Amino acid sequence: MNQALPRVTYSNIGTDFSGVFGLLQKQLEQDAAAPARAFPNLIGGKPDEAGARYIARSPIDGSEIGSFFEAGQGEVDRAISAASAAFREWGSRPWKERVALVRRVADRLSDHKYEVAAACIREVGKSFGEAMGEVEEAIDLVRYYSDQLEANDGFYRPLSRAVPIEETSDVLRPYGVFAVIVPFNFPVALGIGMLAGALLGGNAVVLKPSPQAGLTGHWLARLCEEAGIPGGVVNLLCGGAEVGQALVDHSGVAGYAFIGSHAVGTRILRSVAAGGYNRPVIIEMGGKNPCYVTASADLDVAAEGVMRSAFGLQGQKCSSCSKVYVDRRVYAEFMDKLVAKSRAIKIGAPRSAATFMGPLINEAAFQRFAQACDQARRDGRIVHGGERLEGGEYDGGFYVAPTIVEGLAAEHRLNKDELFLPFLSVQVFDDLEMAIRDGNDIAYGLTAGAYARDEAELNLFLDKAEAGALYANRASGATTGAWPGVQTFCGWKGSGVAGKGALGPYYVQQFMREQSRTIMRTSAAAE
After folding, report:
1. Residues 240, 403, 12: CA angle, nearest 5 degrees
2. Is the C or the N end of the chain the one with fewer CB within 10 Å?
3. One of 284, 304, 418, 457 is an active-site residue; which one?
4. What HEC string does 128-142 produce?
5. pLDDT tens digits for 352-378?
6. Which of helix, strand or coil describes residue 171?
7. How far is 423 from 372, CA to CA, in rounded Å?
8. pTM of whole model > 0.90?
9. Residue in 120, 224, 291, 318 annotated catalytic
């Protein structure tokens, strides 16, 4: 029966998902009723309970999710040692065997998708649509990356010969042990995407989930175990910044995959650069993503798309629309529509499909929100929102109203810094090219969106916007909603380092290094 149900993606917003969400609600209720338990780390294929034990609580209502173990330097050393030992066999396996096992990870995730989505809701505070969409994306990510390895013959390529008895080829080979450091907001899709890239490339992994998302981290490790990935190839260490820094500083790590803030990402780059020799650092570091609404736009579509991208997952996405530029001729009409849609958002504990916005992840996020609202009141005008919600279920977490601000100066901090909040700054423009120039005048370059039916305006946006993922006229999201093999997700400028992004055909190669092979054959052997 489940196979006949539609798959949730970030684009099919008009689909009837009642059957899917009904199953998810049952799973969520079942998990919430189960007693909390301890989740040990995983080192060398064995559970490990060394380190200080800490309790993780749901941002929804403060309920206990489970207890985890803060890994220390000793656990980091042991995990890297176990991964190094496992790498010797895993990295030398034929690539087709690795692909077969990694594809089974996607199969196991498909089997457990309601359980994993429910875990995502409980520890991140996602809506039903966001949680199911993330799990479906994660399944497609693993399969797409596996397909890329297969389509490129394991990244083997014969080369030209300088002389007839010379046999030359080019191959991509693994590095060794990769540290994979995962953020809280997309712990399944981003975690499994980096994990699959490393494994398909022949590397072993030490996986560190966010301390806010240890449960989904454990699910990733369990899925690999169920798929038959050998013990020690994937090791799991929970904890906070200290664990991450210990991984960054460790000489036994051959490469890093990280998604998170620009500040942390640049610290990793500097630390690795100071380590004696260059090691690959595959990083995506957030965004300050602009959108442009022209006079030719369908304003209903524009308001829907901007609202969804600004306030989905409480604005806690690197691709969230945080700044929208609106043509003066349609400014008042667009704002009326945007505010109306924002007022209609269902905010609350995500225990049913009706909820669109859940809580902020923690108190630190709320303090950033409160500070941003204070600055907006002082230097601009709050059109909608700007407050914490209180009473009833709102008292269980940090629930806030989606916030729309106008009148901030172009150079204001709130128009330049990534906030990671449900906070949208609106700017008016008279000249689209000047607006795009201002939208580009930031340290980031992740995503950008536009709403225009005029072809010249669309072409101007496509030619001038400085971001790796561009969207035009999407009701499902102005700047959000990339899908594996459909839209690549590449950070320009301060949003990335490699010029090649996730979800596309150049991702897995970043976890491997090039090697040319030249063999001189005797004349007889060559014949």
Report:
1. 80
2. N
3. 284
4. HHHHHHHHHHHHHHH
5. 999 999 999 999 999 999 999 999 999
6. strand
7. 8
8. yes
9. 318
- For the segment 311-359, what is each residue's pLDDT rounded down to a tens digit? 999 999 999 999 999 999 999 999 999 999 999 999 999 999 999 999 9
H helix intervals, 397-466? 432-440, 455-464
The residue type found at 380 is: G
Residue 137 annotated to the active site: no
Length of the chain equals: 527
CA distance 141 to 148: 11
Q: Is 14 exposed, middle or buried (0-12, 13-18, 19+ CB in 10 A)?
A: exposed
What are the tens digits of pLDDT across the range 428-459?
999 999 999 999 999 999 999 999 999 999 99
Strand runs (DSSP E) across 333-468, as ranges?
381-384, 403-406, 423-429, 444-445, 447-451
Residues paired with 324 in a beta bridge? 291, 426
The verdict on whether 284 is a catalytic residue reads yes
Rounded to whole angstroms, how far apart are CA atoms 206 and 98?
A: 17
End-to-end CA distance of the chain: 59
Angle between helices 331-343 and 299-311 (to 10 degrees): 50
Secondary structure percentages of the chain, helix, strand, coil, to 5: 45, 20, 35
User: What domains lie within the chain, and their CATH numbers?
Assistant: 40-285+499-515 (3.40.605.10), 289-483 (3.40.309.10)
Which residues, other chains included, contact 480 with Cβ-Cβ below 8 Å and sequence gap of 6+? 10, 308, 309, 312, 317, 319, 320, 321, 447
